[in-house]
Amino acid sequence: MLDFDAGKYAVYVWPAFGLTALTFGWMIASTLLRARRWRREAERLEKNRA
Amino acid sequence: MIPVPAFLANPQRFMVFSRWAAPMFGVIAAALIAAGLWMTFSVPEDYQQHDTVRIMFIHVPAAWLAMFAYLCLGIASLLGLVFRHALADMAAKAAAPLGAAFTVLALATGSMWGKPMWGTWWVWDARLTSVLVLLLLYLGYLALRASIDDETKAGRAAAILALAGLINLPIIHYSVEWWNSLHQGSSTFEADQGDRLPAIYLTPLLIMGLGYMSAFGSLWLVGIRAEVWRRRARVLSLQQAGG
After folding, report:
1. ipTM of the predicted structure?
2. Of B89, B99, B117, B149, which shows the fewest CB atoms inside 10 Å?
3. Which residues of chain A have a Cβ shorter than 8 Å from any chain B Cβ?
4. For chain B, how many structural domains are there in total?
């Protein structure tokens, strides 16, 4: 049974989990977007060379 | 048989390896973190820390990864400096922002755990201060790399800073033993039997730790791939500009 009721400590528990989710979201998005950007740029330049 | 680091030192082989390894680690991370979160909200609250004990399952793995990422940064910097290997330099560069993010998480979630348990958001004790120094080392590394136009010089200068900063890792680890600290001592592998976490808390903690580790592995590999493509694009761009 999942217990999501943190009682009087909710004000500390949920911001900690929220910040963790946001940070993971930022790490995933920034890493994937940077990889996609440079892969496309490298592929575009390869095509131009060909 | 080619040793693993030598095998991966070739950028083409690395790209082939990381193409399947990065998503594989990503899937493993998602599964482990999902299972860890389910267990996080299934365990009973602690008799002293009450519901704040759930913060432990995101705070401790973040602190482990903050240190592990710096160790990876240090090793990659050493390989880059000694062997002048481009891929090692790319690995160091890709590890830094991830390590900095985990360090921010460790400090912030620790603060949110500290306020209800210690009665304060922050205290200048050895563990907290040495982790803050770790964050400053990451930020210094990133700033140094960004401030020098010549990429080779930037990589070397940043690598020297990263290597000097390695001394901070044992300081963080042993800070709770060397100095009086508000922060608790080890309660996992090195703890005495009486101080060790009970299995009901240790199991989800280890699962979350492995999940964080896999997430770092996946993102690190993608970050290195991005750097390989960026440098490839730069070379092609220069070639085409030169006619």
Report:
1. 0.94
2. B149
3. 1-7, 9-10, 12-13, 15-17, 19-20, 23-24, 26-28, 30-32, 34-35, 37-39, 41-42, 45-46, 48-49
4. 1
